Amino acid sequence: xxxxxxxxxxxxxxxxxxxxxxxxxxxxxxxxxxxxxxxxxxxxxxxxxxxxxxxxxxxxxxxxxxxxxxxxxxxxxxxxxxxxxxxxxxxxxxxxxxxxxxxxxxxxxxxxxxxxxxxxxxxxxxxxxxxxxxxxxxxxxxxxxxxxxxxxxxxxxxxxxxxxxxxxxxxxxxxxxxxxxxxxxxxxxxxxxxxxxxxxxxxxxxxxxxxxxxxxxxxxxxxxxxxxxxxxxxxxxxxxxxxxxxxxxxxxxxxxxxxxxxxxxxxxxxxxxxxxxxxxxxxxxxxxxxxxxxxxxxxxxxxxxxxxxxxxxxxxxxxxxxxxxxxxxxxxxxxxxxxxxxxxxxxxxxxxxxxxxxxxxxxxxxxxxxxxxxxxxxxxxxxxxxxxxxxxxxxxxxxxxxxxxxxxxxxxxxxxxxxxxxxxxxxxxxxxxxxxxxxxxxxxxxxxxxxxxxxxxxxxxxxxxxxxxxxxxxxxxxxxxxxxxxxxxxxxxxxxxxxxxxxxxxxxxxxxxxxxxxxxxxxxxxxxxxxxxxxxxxxxxxxxxxxxxxxxxxxxxxxx
Length: 560
Fold this sequence. Notes:
This protein is of the alpha+beta class. The protein has helices spanning about 5-15, 30-35, 60-70, 70-75, 140-155, 275-280, 285-290, 345-360, 365-390, 400-410, 445-450; strands at about 50, 80-90, 90-100, 105-115, 115-120, 125-130, 135-140, 165-175, 180-185, 195-200, 205-210, 215-225, 230-240, 240-255, 295-305, 310-325, 325-335, 340, 410-420, 425-435, 450-460, 465-470, 475, 485, 490-495, 505-515, 520-535. It is about 25% helix and about 40% strand. The strands form two sheets. A 14-stranded antiparallel beta sheet has the order 1-8-9-10-11-12-13-14-2-3-4-5-6-7, with helices on one face. Strands 15, 16, 17, 18, 19, 20, 21, 22, 23, 24, 25, 26 and 27 form a 13-stranded antiparallel beta sheet that branches. Helix 6 (about 275-280) packs antiparallel against helix 10 (about 400-410). It is globular. The protein starts with a helix and ends in a 25-residue tail after the last strand.
């Protein structure tokens, strides 16, 4: 059985090649806070937060909250809702707002002021914002993850939140709001994290916080709307901006809100996404050949969580990676947990790497022949496919890539293609989600048909800049007896452009909860950070094993 460390290194090899070759294997913080009610935690003195001898479970706190609102059954029957608000600053009316919510995970808020409009939304595929200047931005990293989680919790009204792959724990009994309140922390393995305050007396939600943004939303004046208690007053407090007050004017339920309401606005310029994807696919072979011209530093961080979202264990290793022709790269461990290896262990590692490089040189011809045999095997498989289709010829290796892209094009619809900026470069961005009328014919198509996410493509180089993909539904093999993946399993990869035009991996993250056979399930959270790319001659005799460079244990933090 392979260790987690070996599995992480093996998975990282697949990240070196551009993602499409693997076939898919407003305006500021206040805008999002206003639009989606995401909210961080102000500093508190230790005396104000008490840890009870035994805190109630999150299931108990949420259960009491649902009963106080009107009952789980009644809340679950609400499939969508529209709320109309008046917005004030220090009792002076600024404008109006509309919030639309649709289960299972979509929220949109539009705010209209005298000087313009602010829009923000989140759904299963992406989270986006458009400010008063009209510029559109698709959120990334923790900001996007937290916003999507907040939307999912709000749209579901916390009913069956565990099915959303959200973890929860009761943190403390807090009295800073003028009454005792239980603090629950909701989180996801991707790093998204929010805290909710529930009154110990009334059981109602009092506040939500997002510590990363230093903002908070408070709720009050609960009154009944169509048999459900709703907060008729919200106060948004973002550090340094003053508090905005939202007063509810009316609410409507189950009006049949379209999913398209939550999609980002389309670009005014016509964008042919299928044609662009085919260009990206055809562009990969030449790029793949050049990836092996670089050695690089790779930081691998593996985390284990318990069922409450707490980190049980974190392992950080930094490697120097030497790609080799016709075989897997060689990994040289240079630090663990931020500490360089001891001289004795470093010497052993250097000896091991040197032996692997020498072995690679000795077997160079054998590796080349093995690769040629694999190419011939693929050619025979293409010939067999062509024969079954009644088409002459074997086609080319590009056919394999075209088949992969074609599967993606058949299984998914592409939503709201638009132009944005990412890392100071123009990008074509689009969301993708399963086609309602698509019926998969094999396991690969079945996985693709369950994916949602977003893609950023460089329109000049025709390269994937960033890809976010998540399983909208669980995936099972053998009715779940052989393998079971929970919904929410996610993959993110981001690439960077080198001076010579080659695009190479910059960051990748894998989050999934999987159960294999009858064994206990395993949660995988692995982050890969790539840095310090250097060109080299891929001859074993040309390698020079150097000592660890200062600072290589902590590559520049990428935009997750």
